[in-house]
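testing teh design pipeline on a random one, pls ignore if ur not involved
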């Protein structure tokens, strides 16, 4: 696996992104580890966004993003730019850790049919001076999550917004320490538990 070390600093204004897939069609990132150097900072590790051109059907295989040595807010984000057809991406065996906001963040409404296979979002260990609030954050769009899981988040391992008939599927995942999955209505922001979730080990409780 190739290892990339980010040594830059997050600034004011536009987000600082270590690897930006902007307007990429059928792109593939495979066998790459992205880490922050000691003292380095970034708003986002890897971002997939649509600006002048549509980003669609991109794939990340065997990728790791780790910000523990520096200051990383979000490990992987799908969103920003234009809210248009940023969809059909596949993430397989992608592991993220060492973030202070989100492990995976799906942020725009026109993000549909993302597929996650055996991916993990691992927050900072309990007792660490730094905390990771949310592992997988679905603010908009839809996803299917199979296998993998998450742990060590202070708010929720997985925070899901449901959008009417849009599919949100979680199956065969394992969440622990603490094991919390929340589903809420994107239109009303009210907390609900009606997302179609079928997991091997999951504890659902109000936050």
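output:
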């Amino acid at each position: 696996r190739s290892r990339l070390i980010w040594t830059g600093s997050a600034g004011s204004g536009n987000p600082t992104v270590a690897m930006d897939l902007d307007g990429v069609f059928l792109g593939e990132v495979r066998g790459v580890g992205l880490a922050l150097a000691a003292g380095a900072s970034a708003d986002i590790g890897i971002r997939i966004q649509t600006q002048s051109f549509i980003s669609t059907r991109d794939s990340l295989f065997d990728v790791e993003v780790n910000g523990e040595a520096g200051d990383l807010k979000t490990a992987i984000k799908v969103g920003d730019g234009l809210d248009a057809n940023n969809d059909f991406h596949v993430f397989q065996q992608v592991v993220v850790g060492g973030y202070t906001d989100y492990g995976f963040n799906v942020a725009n409404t026109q993000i549909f049919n993302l597929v996650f296979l055996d991916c993990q979002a691992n927050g900072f260990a309990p007792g660490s001076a730094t905390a990771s609030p949310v592992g997988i954050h679905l603010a908009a769009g839809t996803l299917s999550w199979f296998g993998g899981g998450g742990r060590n988040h202070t708010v929720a391992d997985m925070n899901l917004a449901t959008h009417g008939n849009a599919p949100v599927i979680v199956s065969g995942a394992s969440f622990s320490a603490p094991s919390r999955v929340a589903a809420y209505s994107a239109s009303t922001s009210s907390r609900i538990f009606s997302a179609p979730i079928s997991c091997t080990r999951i504890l659902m409780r109000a936050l």
